[in-house]
Amino acid sequence: MAHRQAQQRRPSIHDxxxxxxxxxxxxxKVMAGVTTVKPENAQRVIDAVELLGYRxxxxxxxxxxxxxxxxxxxxxxxxxxxxxxxxxxLESFAEQRGYxxxxxxxxxxxxxxxxxxxxxxxxxxxxVVLAPVRNEHGPAAAFMKANGMTGVLIDRVxxxxxxxxxxxxxxSASAEVARELIGKDHRxxxxxxxxxxxxTGRARLEGFRAAARALAPDVRIDVVLAEADVETLRAQLRxxxxxxxxxxxxxxxxxxxxxxxxxxxRRRGWHCxxxxxxxxxxxxxxxxxxWPAIAAVVQPVRQIAGHAxxxxxxxxxxxxxxxxxxxxxxxxxxxxxxxxxxxxxxxPT
Amino acid sequence: MAHRQAQQRRPSIHDxxxxxxxxxxxxxKVMAGVTTVKPENAQRVIDAVELLGYRxxxxxxxxxxxxxxxxxxxxxxxxxxxxxxxxxxLESFAEQRGYxxxxxxxxxxxxxxxxxxxxxxxxxxxxVVLAPVRNEHGPAAAFMKANGMTGVLIDRVxxxxxxxxxxxxxxSASAEVARELIGKDHRxxxxxxxxxxxxTGRARLEGFRAAARALAPDVRIDVVLAEADVETLRAQLRxxxxxxxxxxxxxxxxxxxxxxxxxxxRRRGWHCxxxxxxxxxxxxxxxxxxWPAIAAVVQPVRQIAGHAxxxxxxxxxxxxxxxxxxxxxxxxxxxxxxxxxxxxxxxPT
DNA sequence: GTGAAAGCGCTAACAT
DNA sequence: ATGTTAGCGCTTTCAC
Lengths: 349, 349
Description:
The structure is a homodimer of 349-residue chains.
Chain A: H1 13-20, H2 24-32, H3 39-52, H4 58-65, E1 70-75, H5 81-96, E2 100-105, H6 110-122, E3 127-130, H7 139-146, E4 151-154, E5 164-168, H8 170-183, E6 188-194, H9 199-215, E7 220-226, H10 230-242, E8 249-252, H11 255-268, E9 277-281, E10 295-298, H12 301-316, E11 325-328, E12 331-333, H13 341-344
Parallel strand pairs in A: 1-2, 1-3, 3-4, 4-5, 5-11, 6-7, 6-8, 8-9, 9-10
Antiparallel strand pairs in A: 10-12
Helix pairs in contact in A: 1-2, 1-3, 5-12, 6-7, 8-9, 10-11
Chain A binds a DNA duplex (16 and 16 nucleotides) through helix 2 and helix 4.
């Protein structure tokens, strides 16, 4: 180990060069692992590097190389487990390839999303993994297109004509939820979600509806969708129950909806699964710890991140195939929050 | 708006200069807002910038300026609400000052923590906000010291002789929890946490213990601390209850401990607050939604982030005062998970 | 095998 | 008020 004091200026490649008695170009070659350097000189360089504690300045290096080894990641938020895990995974895949991940939060704002994207473009990132606030047809994707940026879209997307997309297979997972609920004799089910604008939300709803109706044509499916605002959803849900509606199960299409549903159940003194069943899209650590444990659709974060990065690096390497839309299979974890209405309560007529 | 196509090379300052018929230096001045440029030329520059869609390359700019407008943030994880909120806040404070935040996860590994720090040093970040895996005396802080980096330590720290520190006032919050529990007639309380190594863990435990004993000298406080591993804690907790121990309340010193406690209660069929009361350090969104809602100590994330950034920028600006250790007051939210043993169960002898 | 020279995109002195 | 020059720290021809 080199012993160095606190200091202002770090040793540059020239410092190493003069200590080793060679030119900066040679040092550069040694650092890059070029084999055509005379072993003796290489060793002198290595020693000088060690002695001075020299490390390449990645930014200066990238400046010269024209393509920067930085990947940008834009998430709608950092506060949820899902996106937290996503960033962790993306970071780790980026590092495996010698890139640095720079993550930013659009805080659910499309305006901010585009600003951040512009900043990433200024940074000349090699590529961007964008989890759009709404879907693939937002201003951010348009910006990327217009500026010839290379990127991959994830999460709230289904497919795009310019970029590869990777997301959870919402429709299949929802169909499986439908099979489970129908199989447990639920015939009046409420689906809650955000506005139908999001393509994935629609896929979840339709996947559920189609499967449920195929299995039980007599099933009644109510839908409460709110416009992009959780508090609105809460109000609408309250209204819905206030009208006397009494579904035997609720399927929430997104995490916060599950929280809202739970809290509305609580407000009314209903317990799962005896009074009502609950399944949510998106898992969270606490869901298996509460009583009852909450049934959930688990998104394959690692696979999404992995395939997104794979696709991105293929594009960075110059791949020119038409965009691919990937759907990763989810797991449906049936937990205690789902019961059978025939067992626990008088069947509603 | 400028209309540009997808393209390989973005316009550089020289492109703007030649279009505007001035030198690059003049363009640079206009971009920097220097007022000594002839208005007519300034306008020509502005027009050219608009036309070409020119934007400064921040990395090239920083390279020349010697000090980079990048702040590094190192968190132990991204998956929890707390650190997610922290990153969001830090990002926003950094942007307010024209800096970009580059966040990285040490994934609870001290080795990785130091590696990341070294990478941030390579990047010549202006400063680092470090939430250390263990505490202020780890290898990361030592690395920062040895390399003369400027930084601020947050979260799992109490004070340091080289860096400013900002964290939640664990001891006071725990004392308040003690007052609440003692006031509700709890006289046998179990405290669960991770190894006493973490200074903040110790502060939480001691703050609790001291306050509880001062109010009720006869109180029995059991402590189950595990060595940095949540599964170990689970096993120890299981053993503890298996021995027949029957505290009336549990105080968890950290979030995952609260989850573990809850799941162990479930395993034994105990419900809060009738069978046992529960308070946890660290709040989470789900805690107010489950039944019962879980009482929690809420950390002032925004204040911690804000003061950390304030301190950091003061140091970046050259402040040389001795390090300051800040403690931010928490809020204790008593929710339904806390009851009174005298009301709900035979008092244990 | 190696180094001199050029230059990535920018800014800061210093002339003018 | 402006342009010229000289780099920031690095990599990359391209002669030698």
